[in-house]
Fold this sequence. Notes:
Blueprint: H1 35-47, H2 55-74
Helix pairs in contact: 1-2
Amino acid sequence: MSWHEYKGKYDPADFIVPPELEKGKSQRVQFYAQAAHVRLLNIIARSGHFPFETKEDVARWCLKHGLEHIDKLEL
């Protein structure tokens, strides 16, 4: 399923976190994650309930929203 084929109840725009900026700038981040977390990333990406295509899409979304949440806590 692609972003354009998604017909779910959520707005895909709320879930799109591009892998790079408009100018093509991005950084690679590597870290170890618990096997259960990686499994859940795959389950969410393949579920069809959200407009994600890969586990990396889910991870980028989680990173973005997690950092926004922490930023609000610290202000």
